[in-house]
Amino acid sequence: MPLTSRPWLRRSLVTLVPAALAALALAPAARAAAPAYVALGDSMASGPLIPDITGPVACGRSTHNYAHVLASTLGVAGLNDVTCSGAATRHMTEPQNLSVLGQPAGTAPPQFDALTADTRLVTLTIGGNDAGLVGVAQTCVNLLPTGTPCKTKYTQGGVDQVAQRIDAFEPKLAAVLDGIRQRSPQARVAVTGYGLYIKPGGCWPTVPVLPADADWLQGSVARMNGVIARQAAAHGMAYIDLVTPSAGHDACQAPAAKWLEGYVPTSAAAPLHPNRTGEENYARIIAGQLQAAR
């Protein structure tokens, strides 16, 4: 029966259709799906000076850092990479003041702003700036194979100042991991350690630090990794060991083999930081552990 022969139906449609369209027009837009993967952390995760740059220049965030490679490898629904050079634990909940060549360059929002209840994967690399490890390493350059180890400066009176900073970092990391769990209770969380920067005994002059300093610096990294592993386990999160698989890929190695650069980089990367090969291999290691734990 045609519509014109049903006046009651025609009257109903004339009334209901405009009302329905008006309701749709007034309804709020559907919330966009939040990225499934949030990457948090410092310059070890952001990949400074590795092409190409994404996000604030001062954050040194690369499109080839481990987060971007990992997102592609795992085929996650979306990535929100908020890693930033210079970030410390406080920058998870506080804005980070940025600078370029010593000049102010704005601020980065608290990294925790990226976390939502919909987040399903979080990676975190943090702690190096809390302990000031890169700054310490920069003071250890020795252009002669003799001299006083820089560790002497930091261990006067039998107290290792760097070890104290690392120990003070532990409760800060615990608070960060608690904060991640509170904001993203359904997320799998992978917390990385730091890699093998220099082989035992060092390799002066390729990396111009004395053997005693090489072992002390890498020992400080090991202490940091111990803290990270302990807190990850205490929070039921995955700890990603990057030292063991880094063997043979430290800054002492040939350019084609190394994952971490020394004081004078031989590829596009920041001094004392992972290069593109390192970031890609870190992504491979993290992906392997996450997939194995399913």
Notable traits:
294 residues; alpha/beta; Rossmann fold; five-stranded parallel sheet; two-stranded antiparallel ribbon; 9 helices; 7 strands; 11% strand; globular; disordered N terminus
Produce a short descriptive summary.
With 294 residues, the protein is of the alpha/beta class.
Structural account:
With 294 residues, the protein is of the alpha/beta class. The protein has a single domain, classed as 3-Layer(aba) Sandwich (Rossmann fold), CATH 3.40.50. The protein contains nine helices and seven strands, in the order αβααββββααααβαβα. The protein has helices at residues 7-26, 43-46, 66-74, 128-131, 133-138, 151-154, 161-183, 211-234, 276-292, and strands at 37-41, 79-81, 96-100, 103-108, 121-125, 188-192, 238-240. It has a five-stranded parallel sheet with strand order 2-1-5-6-7, with helices on both faces. α8 (211-234) links the parallel β6 and β7. α3 (66-74) crosses α9 and α7 packs parallel to α8 (211-234). The longest helix has 24 residues, at 211-234. It starts with 6 loop residues before the first helix and ends with a helix. 41% of the residues are buried. Mean pLDDT is 90; it is low at 1-32.
Assembly state of the chains shown: single chain
Overall pLDDT confidence: 90
| Percent strand | 5-15%
User: What count of helical segments does DSSP give?
Assistant: 9
Determine Rg (CA atoms, Å): 25 Å
Residue ranges: pLDDT <50 for 5 or more in a row? Answer: 1-32
Question: What's the CATH superfamily, by name?
Answer: SGNH hydrolase
- How do the strands line up in the largest sheet? 2-1-5-6-7
* Distance, first to last CA: 59 Å
Tell me how many strands there are.
7
Which word captures the global form?
A: globular
Task: Bin the helical content.
Answer: 25-40%
> What is the number of domains?
1
Query: What's the CATH first level?
Result: Alpha Beta
Largest sheet: 5 strands, parallel
CATH arch. level architecture: 3-Layer(aba) Sandwich
Spell the H/E element sequence: HEHHEEEEHHHHEHEH
Structural class: alpha/beta
User: Do you know the CATH topology?
Assistant: Rossmann fold
